[in-house]
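Reviewers of the previous submission asked for a worked example of the structure-prediction workflow described in the proposal, so we include one complete record here. The input consisted solely of the amino acid sequence. No template or homolog information was supplied to the procedure at any stage.
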Amino acid sequence: MRGLYCAVGFVLALTMSAMPASAGDLTCLIQPYQTITMTSPVAGVLESITVDRGDVVKEGQVLATLDTSVERATGAVAHAHAELSNRRLADLELNRTTAEIALRTMKSPINGVVVERYMHPGEFPKQERILKLAQIDPLRVEVYAPVGLLGKVTVGMSAMVKPEEPIKGEFPAKVTVVDKVVDAASGTFGVRLELPNPDFKLPAGLKCTVRFNK
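From that input alone, the workflow returned the following C-alpha cells.
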C-alpha cells in the first residue's frame, strides 16, 4: 500500500509541477463518500431484487429479500398458539421468527446509487456480494498537496473544485482531513475535502483541480 501511495503521489506531484506557479490549482480526484457491498447475513434462496445498476436508492428502502416461506409459516403457527394459549413461549417464538424474517430483508443503509448488481433471483448467496452501493452526496475529493502547503491547508478551510470536462463550472467544498504524515518520496501530503452534491449532478470518478481559498 505504501508503494502505491508513493507512486500516486509522485505522479500527482509531477502533474502539479507542470502547472503554472500562478495557477494555484492542484490535481484532485472526486470519489464517492463511501461505497458499501451488500451481502446476506444468513443463507437462503434469493427471492427478489428490486433495483439494478444506476438506480437511486433511499436509506431504509428494501433492495433484496431471501425466501421466507418457512419463517412465515412458523410465524403463523406461533401467532396462532399465542392467541389460543397466550403463553409466553409462543410469544418468544413469534418474536424469534419476526427477527429471522428481518435478517432476510436487505435494506439500503444509505441514500445513494446502485453501482453494481451481482446476483439474480433464484441464486443462493452464501455471504457473496449481492449489490454494491455508493453514497455520492456528499462526495469526497482527494488531493495530494506539495509539502510547501503544510500548515497552510487546515481542516475547515473552503476551496473551489473544478471537475474535468464535460462538467462545467466550479463547486464549493470544505477540507475535512489533512494528513499529518508527509510522503518523503513524492514530497506531498494527503488532503480530503467534502463536496456537497444534493442533486447528484456530479458523478464520482472524475478528475478535477482544486483551489484553496485564502
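Residues 2-34+135-212 form a domain with the Elongation Factor Tu (Ef-tu); domain 3 fold (CATH 2.40.30.170). We consider this example representative of the routine output the project will generate in years two and three.
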